[in-house]
Amino acid sequence: MRENILLLLQIITVDFFTAFGLYSILFLIVSIFIKKPILYKIDEEAVKFISLAGVIYFTVWIIGIFVFYAENNPEEKSDMLNRMFGKYWIGFWSQPILWFTITQLLRLKKVSKNTLLRILFSFLLIVSIERFMIFIITLHRDYLPSSWTMYRDLDIYPSNFFLALLMKIMVFLLFVGIYYLAKSRLVKLVRSKKYNL
Length: 197
What we know:
This protein has about 200 residues and is mostly helical.
């Protein structure tokens, strides 16, 4: 159960939140040059999808807390409660609440249409607080310039990196399309049942 919850949370954060952040940046750039209504319709559905993903993420995260607590031994339960309500409680609660809040604020048209907020929210969805802290800490280490190498630990080179980002956006848009089709079919089904009664 634990592994399934962690996998689902990772899929939502990496494949949906990060992809939505990348998509938003791409959308804002493309919308400067292209003013077609279909582009804005796709964006509207993407915002609705990411809002739903935020609700699912937060629900699974809360369920995960209870599952992890129930499966732990007494010492681990004490450590978990200390992390949740102890001296550094803000580190435990801030990221999930931030992601949930961002995704729900996007439901508001004034927020989702505001370019500055979209860029800020995109950055906050792409770069988690943990990633940001790791980045800041690595900038302050005393590395010698001779030890600086790009892509030392990664097998990702610039061409593959941009291709991977493009694929992530395409997969996100595929899920948005599936969400739109499922939602429209469900609405038609409800309307037909309503009129048949």
